[in-house]
Structures are given as C-alpha cells and as structure tokens.
Amino acid sequence: MKNLMRVFIVTVLAADLFAIVYFTGHYVNTGHFLPAQHGNETNPVLAALTPETAEASDSDASGVEAKNVDMSVVLAAGDPTLGQKISNKCKACHTFDSGAPNKTGPNLWNVVGGPIAHLDSFSYSSALAKRHEAGDTWTEENLYHFLENPKDFAPGTKMVLKIRKSEERAHLIAYLKTLK
Ligand code: HEC
Asked: Whose CA is nearest to atom 40 of ligand 1?
C-alpha cells in the first residue's frame, strides 16, 4: 500500500513537471500558452486571407493601379526593347516600319512628336481629326494618356485598346520614339 502511494505521487509529480516544462517551453517559443491564441498578424496563412490582402490582389489582377503614379518618373524608365515586345498587342491594327501600309489603324512610324492624326494617307475619326486641326501633337504625355484610355483622351476615337499598366505605356512610348 505504501509503495502504491509512492508510485501514485511520483506519477502525479512527473505529470505536473512535464506540463510545466511543456507549457513553459511553448510560452517561451511563441509568447502564447495555447496554439489557438496565435494572432492573424503572425500567421502567414491567416494573414493571406484577410480582406485587405484579398482586395489588393484583386486590383492587381484587373490591372487597376494606384492613382499616385508619377508620369515623368514612369516615362523616364521606359525600355524600348520591352516596348517592342508589347507592341505585338498592336500589330492586329498597326504596322511600325517606315513606309509600311496602314491597316485598321495608321502606320506608326515617326508618330512621336508629330501631329495627332499624323498621316494624310489614313482616314481618321473626327475625334482625332479635330485634335489635328487644333494643332495638338503626340507628346509623350498625350500618348501616355491616349494609350491608357483612348476614348477618355479623344471621345469618339476608333482606337479601342487600353494599356492599363503605366510601365507598359512607358515601354511602348520608348519604343515608338526609336521609330524615326
Ligand atoms: C483594334 C485595332 C487597334 C489596336 C489593337 C490598336 N490600335 Fe491604335 N489605332 C487604331 C485606330 C483605328 C486608330 C485611328 C483612331 C481614330 O482615327 O480615331 C488608331 C490610332 C492610334 C494612334 C494615333 C496615330 C496617329 O496617327 O495620330 C496611336 C499612337 C496608336 N493608335 C497607338 C497604338 C498602340 C501603341 C497600340 C498597341 C498598344 C494600338 N494602337 C493598338 C486601332 C488600333
């Protein structure tokens, strides 16, 4: 009987000791006693599921970007080699080589710096023809806005393709500048 008591007490003490060591270790490692007390901020899986993060990746996917993009900084970073690759998006309607024919859209050789509606050989919408008569030119800034949303820049234009990403517009403009 005495022996049984001793075994019992030793067992209880050992269990307590184990519990103390276990929870102290867990607390030292995590700052929490129980796993359920972990906050979102420290758990990458939960953090990825918070609404803010989900919204941010949504707007990334749709290509909508922050409004506070500095146009001159973005334009200065334009890379003609990347722009040439992106110009594949335009080739259904445009040619880029000197003297190449117009398609659905006008040939784009030497367009930067020239007048809006820069070719006599193309039949432009009245939207662009009016800008031509007003003496407006294809500055880099005008191209930047036109390519972002042609119909905002010139309501009624027949050009429809929007390039939403400011860096892509800068690369395209850097490429168009080389065509002269
Ligand atoms: C679906 C056909 C189509 C696609 C794709 C297209 N464009 Fe156009 N683009 C046009 C048409 C049509 C016009 C003439 C618009 C008008 O007369 O209103 C035009 C006009 C332009 C002009 C003005 C030219 C001038 O002489 O004033 C520029 C610059 C231009 N496009 C650049 C581009 C670039 C860069 C791309 C590719 C990122 C592109 N376009 C993709 C059809 C297209």
From this structure: 90
CA 80, CA 63: separation in Å to the nearest integer? 21
φ/ψ (deg, to 5) at 137: -125, 165
Total Cβ atoms within 10 A of residue 117: 22
pTM of the model: 0.71
In tens, the pLDDT along 47-97 reads 444 444 333 333 444 455 556 789 999 999 999 999 999 999 999 999 999
Q: What domains, with CATH codes, occur in the chain?
A: 2-62 (no CATH), 71-177 (1.10.760.10)
Q: How far does residue 143's CA lie from ligand 1's centre (Å)?
A: 10
Nearest CA to ligand 1 atom 33: 90
Distance CA 96, CA 125 (A): 20
